[in-house]
Every structure is written in structure tokens, then in C-alpha cells.
Design a protein that fits this description.
single chain; alpha/beta; Pyruvate Kinase, Chain: A, domain 1; YojJ-like (1; 7-stranded mixed sheet; 5-stranded mixed sheet; binds adenosine-5'-triphosphate; DacZ_P; nucleotide-binding; transferase; ATP-binding; DAC_DacZ
Length: about 300
């Protein structure tokens, strides 16, 4: 395959990346590549610093694999650079290519298409704490963004705080609630039964506190797309056939994946053992959020990709 030579600015950025890596305890350089460079050469320019390449272009992915450089495959969707970068970082962590506390250098075409012209130094723990609203926006679900955010926030809080010093695992299934109710059954008497709609809205601080308390019971919270808790303690019966999940994930995560495949709902599972929150859509993990020491701040970031 014909390879593209790095333009002079890209070559200088590689030298800068190497220097910054040495001076600032950087564990890897991530290159968002739109062109099939000679990645072995790029790696040699970085000397001993680990190179990871992220791309959604099949020819670039093939070149990366030929050169035996770790590849982060991105989804083929027009995203802002910021979202692509966040996605690449989350994928790299999910594949154990990076640790959540790492600091990395990112190289990308921020302003001109195809020309690597930008360098960012990113502290992953800080970046992941500032998960962008767009990470959820791109899910394109019928669940309004503010409801999804409330539920994911609550899941993250449960994963981080647990209850009375004990870690707690649970699951939320949001949207398409009639079908989700049909595909699940009651495990324990539903503690929300008998309360009015107003007393079951996830936006209410009191309801959020009750949810945190009740997260210790087995089963899932079912939430309507307008944010009303329809039931708690439901065991999901969706079939798990045809699904693939990372090894190490147990029954809770399989059930979350299965219900998101069988219905249009979004499922958010909190792992009891790690506090990690995984958001499932259509049977796969679309977002993974590691527990943070500090509370998560939502923010919108607008860096548009260069014009096609
Ligand atoms: N079909 C299901 N529907 C709802 N909840 C379920 C279902 N199956 C299991 N769970 C919940 O998951 C809990 C733990 O199961 P398991 O340890 O196998 O899950 P896991 O995916 O490994 O998650 P964790 O990381 O929290 O251990 C159960 O106690 C139960 O509350």
C-alpha cells in the first residue's frame, strides 16, 4: 500500500511530542490518522514512547495493522475532533492500551483536513471526569438527553459512593418501558408501587436518594423516557443469544446488553466489583465510565472537524 510522508509540520510535531513525553511523564502518543502514513517510521521518530493510532478509515487501519502498531478502530461517523478523541481514549482504556490515570499526547488534524497540525497534552483522569454531553448525544435515542444524563449521573454516583462503605452494583433501563416491563419480571415487591407519578420522577432529589438506597436490591430500575421510575427490582428476561461481551462481565452486564438489543431502551449497568458504569445500546457497550474521585462535570465542547 502506498504510504503518505508526514508533512514538515507533522514531522516537527512528532519531535515535540517526543520531548514533551520525556519531560511530562507521558505514557503514550495517540495519533488520529486520516492518511496511511509509514507508522513504523512514526514510531521510530518517537523513540521509546508508545504510539497508538486511531482511525475510522479502512485503508489507514490496514496500514496500522501491517506496521504492527496498536490500533484503535473508530466508528465511521462524522464527529468533531473532540468527540473522536474522547472516543479513541475510551476505546483505548477499554482495550487496556491505556490506564485511566495516564497522561497522553494527542496528535491530530485540528484545523486543516488531512494535515496533522495540532498537539494536545491530556490528563486522562481529568478528561474522563469532563465527559462531554456529546458522548451521550451521539447515542441518538428516543430518550431525551437530559433524562439520559440524570440516569447516567446517578449510576456514576452509585458506582463511586456505594452505600454505607460497601460497593453497590445495579442497573437502569431507560426508555421503551412498556416493552421492557413485558420482557422482565418482579423479583421482590416493587418499593415504588403505589406512589404517584410525581413522587417517582428521577429529577427529584428525594427520588434519587431512594434509588441510591434501593440500588442494593437485586434487579433493575425501569425508567420511562420522560424520567419516571416505573419499577425497581425487575429481573430482565431478554435472550442473550447473538451477543458478544468482554470476558469478565457477568450476569448483570449480559442482561443489560440483552435488553438493549431486544428493545429500544438504553441500559446503564454499574459494576459492583469496580464501580465502572457501562452504557449499552443495541446489545453493545457504547460508553464506559470509570469511577472518579471527584464528581463529574458535564460540559459542551465545540471543535468542529475540518471541512470535508
Ligand atoms: N437478568 C437479570 N436482570 C436484572 N439483574 C440481574 C440479572 N441477572 C443478574 N442480575 C443482577 O446482577 C447481580 C450480580 O450478578 P453478576 O455478579 O453475575 O454480575 P456482573 O455482570 O459480574 O456484575 P458485577 O460487576 O456487579 O459483579 C445479581 O445479584 C443481580 O442483582
Amino acid at each position: 500500500m502506498k504510504r503518505t510522508d508526514p508533512a514538515p509540520v507533522f514531522a516537527s510535531l512528532l519531535k515535540s511530542a517526543r520531548r514533551i513525553a520525556a519531560e511530562h511523564d507521558v505514557s503514550a502518543v495517540i495519533l488520529l490518522a486520516d492518511l496511511p502514513y509509514d507508522f513504523k517510521h512514526v514510531q521510530s521518530e518517537l523513540k521509546g514512547v508508545k504510539l497508538l493510532v486511531a482511525s475510522h478509515q479502512p485503508d489507514v487501519q490496514q496500514a496500522v495493522q501491517e506496521d504492527e502498531i496498536p490500533l484503535i478502530s473508530l466508528l465511521d461517523e462524522p464527529h468533531t475532533r473532540q468527540v473522536q478523541l474522547s472516543q479513541a481514549l475510551l476505546e483505548a482504556i477499554a482495550d487496556d492500551l491505556l490506564q485511566t490515570g495516564a497522561r497522553i499526547v494527542a496528535l491530530y488534524a485540528g484545523f486543516e483536513r488531512d494535515n496533522v497540525d495540532s498537539l494536545s497534552v491530556i490528563s486522562l483522569s481529568e478528561h474522563l471526569a469532563k465527559l462531554t454531553t456529546r458522548d451521550l448525544q451521539r447515542l441518538e435515542t428516543q430518550v431525551p438527553l437530559q433524562i439520559l444524563r440524570k440516569v447516567v449521573d446517578l449510576a456514576i454516583e452509585i458506582g463511586r459512593e456505594g452505600r454505607e462503605g460497601k460497593s453497590v452494583g445495579t442497573m437502569f433501563v431507560v426508555g421503551n418501558h412498556r416493552k421492557v416491563m413485558e420482557m422482565s419480571h418482579e423479583q421482590v415487591h416493587d418499593p415504588f408501587r403505589g406512589y404517584s407519578r410525581k413522587e417517582r420522577m428521577i429529577s427529584s432529589p428525594r427520588v434519587r436518594e431512594s434509588v441510591k438506597e434501593l440500588a442494593q436490591i437485586d434487579g433493575a430500575f425501569i425508567i420511562s423516557s420522560d424520567g419516571c421510575v416505573m419499577a425497581a427490582g425487575r429481573i430482565l428476561d431478554a435472550p442473550a443469544e447473538g451477543l458478544t461481551l468482554s470476558k469478565g462481565l457477568g450476569a448483570r452486564h449480559w442482561a443489560a446488553a440483552a435488553i438493549s438489543k431486544a428493545t429500544k431502551a438504553i441500559a446503564a449497568a454499574v459494576s459492583e466489583s469496580t464501580g465502572t458504569v457501562r452504557v449499552f445500546q443495541n446489545g453493545v457497550v457504547v460508553l464506559r465510565i470509570e469511577p472518579m474521585d471527584q464528581a463529574m462535570k458535564w460540559q459542551d465542547v465545540d471543535i468542529e472537524p475540518p471541512n470535508e
